[in-house]
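call fold(seq) -> tokens
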Amino acid sequence: MKAETLAYNWHDVEEQYIMRKMKLQLKQEGESFGERLARLRQAAGYSQRELAAEIGISHRMVAYYEKEAGHIPIDLLPLLAKTLRVSADQLLGIEKAKTNGRTRDTRLWRRFAQVEKLPQDQRKPIIQIIDAVLKKEK
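ret:
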């Protein structure tokens, strides 16, 4: 009976240690998980609403994870990492997220991808508008 109690208590201690370690990892170099998530989301060119739609959660949950939550559900971690094109370690702050100094406007590229899916006759006027704007800027 006493051995079972000790084993149970040891499990609780181990679980508390793991949770403390995760909280430390989530807050690295003064940046909380939420701050890091917001920074990576913005660098990827997503609004909170766009990111929420992309991973299948509500806009309110993205806002909550960025502002108030100290952690996220573990099943969202791979979805967020894939969508933001970073590793889970980078998202958690275990590794530094690599930036090359140049940010790509992914919102613009996503729109180009949508235009690309249109039939040729619907694409043509869009391409003409883009060409006209670019010609004017030269």
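The first helix runs from residue 2 to 26.
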